[in-house]
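Q: Here's a chain of 322 amino acids. Please give me its 3D structure as tokens.
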Amino acid sequence: MSRIRSSAGVVNVHRVVGLALLALLALFVAGCGSGDDDGPASAAPPGKLRVVATTTQVADFVRAVGGDRVQVTQILRPNVDPHDYEPSPADVKAVGEADVLVANGVGLEKWLDETISSAGFEGTRVDASQGVRIRPGSDEEEKDGDPHIWHNPLNVKIMTANIERAFAAADPAGAAAYQANRTAYDGRLDALDADIRRQIDALPPASRKLVTNHDAFGYYIDRYQLTFVGSIIPSFDTSAELSGRDINNLVEKIRTTGARAVFSESSLPPNTAETIGREAGVKVVAGEGSLYGDTLGPQGSDGATYLRMEEHNTRTIVDALQ
């Protein structure tokens, strides 16, 4: 069964103190940054909406909807695991100065509530997951549900609609432009969805078995009717602990189901995947062919944008399983 997204926060005193210190340090980082247009210290040109986006995927959606009317500060960088991120002083400063803050939601940004409090943020906060049907978790640690909502392009249409509404409210003069941008992007999402389905449907049903680094692809699996055999880290969270029993159980599942490959992920080391692949006697997809699970890739890579990421993932899966 599924449920609609809800949010909850857990306060850690040590992290609150740490973030408060970061907020003070942030006063001294003006003028420092990564040097690109999306760097934490980039100042918004006059008339542009200052937007902070938490994850690589959300930042990509923000750019698609906002176009040249927004100045985007992206907190998480490519190939950085979002599950255990610690904000920097520049992140705190950027949040405090933002007009709009856009987050993935579903508990992915565990650090965000404390960062907002430390930054003194007074703008508009957008939970892009609102209205998305959330896959439930299996225990108390996964009570928010599965945060990897972007792996279904139809969910992304809901996310970008949420972003458009927030931008139009914050910048009414740009409402028509935001709507036009979102509508155009919707068309590209529909085309992506149709292309993924076409490629997956070309696989024999018995071959559509997926083994991944962690439980990041549930929405993709549900949408395109693959069979989930298991994951190396049996959790939505990559920081979950892995046991020897988990590894042995996964090897046995691979053997008994006839799964053909183990797919590593770009933001995780491939060592355990390679060990499991050897034990099970199947191929391991790693290195440049890794799936993009939690993060987009750097500029110039096959995962540089959301659309390219999903195209790469689908091509990789189909090539390995056919």
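Q: Can you summarize the key feature?
A: The first strand starts at residue 3 and ends at 4.
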